[in-house]
Amino acid sequence: MKEAYFTEDNIREAGEKLLASLDRFRRRHPLKIKRDRIALIVLDMQRFFLDESSPGFLPSAPAIVGNIRSLVEKFSCSGRPVIFTKHENTNDDAGMLGKWWNSIIEAGSHFAEIIEEVLPDRGIIIKKTSYDAFYMTDLDEFLKKNHVEQIVITGVKTNLCCETTARSGFIRGYNIIFTIDGTATDNLDFHKASLLNISHGFGIPALCREIGL
Fold first, then answer.
1. For residue range 143-160, what is the model confidence (pLDDT) as tens digits?
2. Rounded distance, CA 173 to CA 22, Å?
3. Euclidean distance between CA atoms 178 and 66, whole angstroms
C-alpha cells in the first residue's frame, strides 16, 4: 500500500511527468500568480508522517521537504503569509477520524511535532482536529484579515488533508494552487487520483518551482 513514488533523485522528473498528464486542465486554467494576494499553506509536516519509526510514516514525504522549504523561504522573504497546520487529537475530539483509523496523533506527543526542516518558525501554526484546515480553526479569518485570495497547498496527505483543504478553500472563494511535487501520500495511485480530482474542479496543479513571487 505504501511506496516511495517520490525520492530525492526522481522527484523532478516524476513531477514533470505528472504535470504533463494534467496538461488539458492547465490549458483550460493557466497558472497565474497573484503576488500580492497569495499565501502558502503547509499541511501536517509532522514527525508522525516524516519519522521512519512512526506507524504513519510516508515513504515519499521526505522527498518533498526540500521543495516545501524553498517555498517557505520564498514566501517569507517576500512578506507573504505562511501557515503551517498541526494535526492533533484527543479521544474527545477525534470523532470519526478516531473510529475510522483506530488511532490518533496525540496532542503534545513527539510524533505531533512539525519537523524543523520545513522552517515552521517562518510562519504561523494553526492546530486542527480534522482533515479540513478550515474546520473549526481561525484559518479563514486569518486569510481574510491578510487580504488573501489565492492559496498554495503543500504537505501531507495529498488525498486526505491536502485535498479536503483545497476543496474547502475553493468553496470559500479562494483560488487554489495545488502543488504536484509539494504534496505526498501513501502511493502514486492515491496521489494521481487527487491531482485529477482537484484539477478537474477545484484548483490549478503546479510544480513548486513554477510558483514565483
1. 999 999 999 999 999 999
2. 23
3. 17
Please spell the DSSP secondary structure of 72-126, one letter per residue. HHHHHHTT--EEEEEE-B-TTT-THHHHHHS---BTTSGGGSBPGGG-GGGSEEE
Instruction: Tell me if 207 sits within 8 A of 174, measured CB to CB.
Output: no
- List pLDDT tens digits, range 60-119: 999 999 999 999 999 999 999 999 999 999 989 999 998 999 989 999 999 999 999 999
* φ/ψ of residue 27, rounded to 5: -70, -30
* Nearest CA-CA partner of 44 in 104, 113, 140: 113
- Tell me the pTM: 0.97
**Residue 184 bridge partners (DSSP):** 156
pLDDT at position 103: 87
DSSP per-residue string spanning 171-204: HTTPEEEEEEEEEE-S-HHHHHHHHHHHHHHT-E
The span from the CA of 177 to the CA of 22, in Å, is 13
Looking up cell 509536516 gives 45
CA–CA separation, 32 and 12 (whole Å): 21
3-state secondary structure of 44: coil
Alpha-carbon distance values, 125 to 11, 15, 157, 212 (Å): 27, 28, 18, 23
